[in-house]
Structure formats: structure tokens, C-alpha cells
Specification:
Blueprint lengths: L1 H5 L5 H15 L6 H17 L4 H12 L6 H14 L4 H13 L3 H25 L3 H21 L6 H7 L2 H14 L5 H17 L3 H9 L9 H20 L6 H6 L6 H7 L8 H12 L4 H21 L3 H7 L1 H12 L5 H18 L7 H6 L5
């Protein structure tokens, strides 16, 4: 009930569905005065919510769902104290005190600490965008600078373990990437520089750098790519490439990738001819991987994954001809891994079917497996 009252639906359809769910849960009769009163209350509160920031709604709802580690006033008091003293131990001391107040763990409290600080920064940025009077703008800008510099201290690697772990989580890193690129004001160089330093710091320690890289890819259509996104992309791209290369050595790795629905980040890095997987350096890494002699079972796994990989490129790349033009040696190396293994009869049929399909693109020069050559009739 509290959740329903807190929301400002995005459409009339959503509002109607939400109303119906609340009415059914209430147990009131359709014609009862109580139901009529409830309907009026919901509509009134939802109307008011349309004028509130989403962060403010989240904050108010958190007050009803758990004992708060910080209220907004308590958080801003900590930020103000730090702005005046710059005492390095203050963030960790504030965290321990808040965890005690909220009767929760340091890890949970650290995540709320960071998210609430980001909430306040997001609100400041939106206010900056909408202000027209210089005095008001300067005051809000000063407030935003205090928050962002405090945030920079919160994510510093010398903080306690709880804050370090929270700042390294994918949720926090992703939220910062979205907030700093989508919602930030573009005018203030000091704010933007601090945002860049913060994101570079957390991206280097992110527990899932590959996923963070995939989130950078969605900005590819922007020209030029925002500096902040480019920097995070440069830091995290290696993890994404490692994840893609691991598909070749993981049992059924490419099969699972092939079954993904587009757009899937891992599928995208595999099937796009211009992705980071296909730099000269990374193609050489793949070639060395395929040449490795690490046991029969591993070679069999790689042979199957190479066959599935070639199927992905034929069936699901945007333009397989571009692979044939720019990456032909790599395709041939994968094909060599396929035909270098022995297959049962059903596997041989799949290999020959793939050979036929590849020849349509690459040409008849693509070698046959040795067992296929042996089965061909000889001419006198």
C-alpha cells in the first residue's frame, strides 16, 4: 500500500493498473465509502509525486521500509563537517556511527551511504540546470562541489573495507557512469574533473569490469564519445575481451553465447567486426590460444566452440563479408581448429555443412577435413 501511494506512474495505463491492484488488496467493497476515500487519497498523492525528484521518493520510502542509517539532514551534516575540517577519518567514523544507529552491518550501511550521497548530487545537478539567477546558481554549485569532493573521499582506496567494497560494486559504478554522463550539468569544469577522477578510481576496482565496459558501449552512437565514457571504456575493455576469449575454452561457451537474444553485450562483442575483440593484438591472442597444445579434452572444447563461433558470425553478424575482408586469417585459424579434431558421424555432418556455408563467402580454397578427403572418390 505504501509503495503504491509513493509512485507517480509514467502513464494512465500504469496508474489504472496500480489503482486496481491497491483496491483489490484493500478488501473494500466496490461501492463503499472507504474505497472511494482510498481512491481519492491515491490520486492526490500520485499527483503530488509528479512534482518530486525520484531520489526524494526513494528516500521517503526507505524511511518506511527500514531504520535509516542516515537521514538527509544527518548526511548533509557529515558533508558540512568534512568540508570544514577535511579530516580524513571522518567518513569511516560517520559510517560506523550510522551502522550503529540503523542497527545494520557496515557493508549495507556503506552502500546506503554512497547511494544517498549520489542522490544528493543528482538533485543538485538538476537544480543547476534549471536555475537562471547567478546568486542562486553559485550557491547550488558550491553545494554540488562540497558533495562531489566528499564523494571523492568516500571512494578513495584508503577507506575502510566496507566503503571500498561498496564503491567497487557494479551497482555503484554503473550508477555513477549513468549519473555523470546523462544527468550532469556540462558547464562546470571542476565538477566534471572530479567526476572523471571518481569514475576512473571506481572503474579500476569494479568487481565486474566487463559488464561496466558493456555499459560504455551503449554510448557508441554519440560523436564524439564523452571523455568520461572513453576513459572508463579504456580501463575496462581488457576485462570484456578476456571474457570473450574465455568463451573459446569454456565447455559450451559459444553455444550459450549463440543462444542469447540481441542486444546481449557478450554476443555484441563477438559478432561485431569492429569490436575490441578484433584489434590486431587480440586477434593474435586468439591465434595463440588456438595453437596451444593443452590436452585432447581442451582441444575438443575449442573445436566445438570454434564451430559455434563461425556459425554465430554467419548467422548473427551484421555483415559477415566484413569479417571475410578484415579478419580472414582469424576465420581460417578457427576453421583449422575445427577440422583438426576427430568427429563422430553426426559431428562430421555439421562440419561439412559449415564448410559449405563458409565456402560461399570465403571460396573453395577452404581446406576439407582429412577424413572428408579420404572419403572422396579418386579419379583414374
Amino acid at each position: 500500500m505504501a509503495l503504491a501511494l509513493s509512485l507517480g506512474p509514467d502513464s494512465k495505463t500504469e496508474a489504472s493498473a496500480l489503482h486496481q491492484a491497491v483496491f483489490e488488496a484493500s478488501g473494500y467493497g466496490l461501492e463503499s465509502a472507504a474505497l472511494h476515500r482510498l481512491r481519492q487519497l491515491i490520486e492526490k498523492l500520485q499527483g503530488l509525486r509528479n512534482f518530486q525528484e525520484s531520489e526524494q521518493i526513494d528516500y521517503e520510502m526507505s524511511l518506511v521500509t527500514h531504520v535509516p542509517c542516515f537521514t538527509q539532514r544527518e548526511l548533509m551534516d557529515v558533508i558540512t563537517q568534512w568540508s570544514m575540517s577535511h579530516r580524513d577519518a571522518l567518513p569511516d567514523e560517520a559510517l560506523r556511527a550510522a551502522a550503529f544507529r540503523g542497527q545494520t552491518t557496515l557493508d549495507i550501511c556503506a552502500s546506503r551511504f554512497l547511494n544517498m550521497t549520489l542522490d544528493q548530487y543528482a538533485i543538485c545537478n538538476r537544480e543547476l540546470k534549471g536555475q537562471t539567477f547567478k546568486a542562486q546558481h553559485n550557491k547550488t554549485q558550491e553545494h554540488a562541489l562540497a558533495i562531489i569532493h566528499f564523494l571523492e573521499k568516500l571512494v578513495a582506496p584508503q577507506r575502510g573495507a566496507a566503503l571500498v567494497n561498496a564503491a567497487s560494486s557494479l551497482q555503484i559504478c554503473s550508477r555513477m557512469l549513468d549519473l555523470f554522463t546523462t544527468h550532469s550539468s556540462v558547464a562546470d569544469s571542476e565538477l566534471r574533473s572530479a567526476e572523471l577522477r571518481i569514475l576512473e578510481c571506481v572503474a579500476q576496482r569494479c568487481v565486474d569490469r566487463a559488464q561496466l565496459y558493456y555499459q560504455c558501449v551503449r554510448y557508441r552512437s554519440e560523436a564524439p564519445l564523452p571523455q568520461l565514457v572513453q576513459s572508463v571504456s579504456d580501463i575496462t575493455v581488457g576485462a570484456a575481451v578476456d571474457e570473450a576469449l574465455a568463451l573459446f575454452t569454456t565447455a559450451s561457451g559459444m553455444s550459450l553465447c549463440r543462444m542469447q537474444s540481441a542486444p546481449n553485450p557478450l554476443l555484441e562483442i563477438v559478432r561485431r567486426h569492429d569490436s575490441a575483440l578484433y584489434t590486431v593484438e587480440n586477434k593474435e591472442r586468439l591465434r595463440q590460444l588456438l595453437l596451444g597444445d593443452e590436452g585432447e579434452e581442451r582441444r575438443s572444447v575449442m573445436a566445438w566452440n570454434c564451430m559455434e563461433y563461425l556459425r554465430i558470425l554467419i548467422d548473427r553478424s551484421n555483415d559477415f563479408s566484413l569479417f571475410c575482408t578484415h579478419h580472414r586469417p582469424m576465420l581460417e585459424a578457427c576453421w583449422s581448429a575445427v577440422i583438426g579434431e576427430e568427429w563422430v558421424s553426426s559431428g562430421e555432418e555439421q562440419v561439412m555443412s559449415l564448410h559449405h556455408r563458409l565456402c560461399l563467402w570465403i571460396g573453395e580454397s577452404l581446406p576439407l577435413p582429412h577424413w572428408a578427403k579420404a572419403s572422396q572418390p579418386t579419379t583414374a
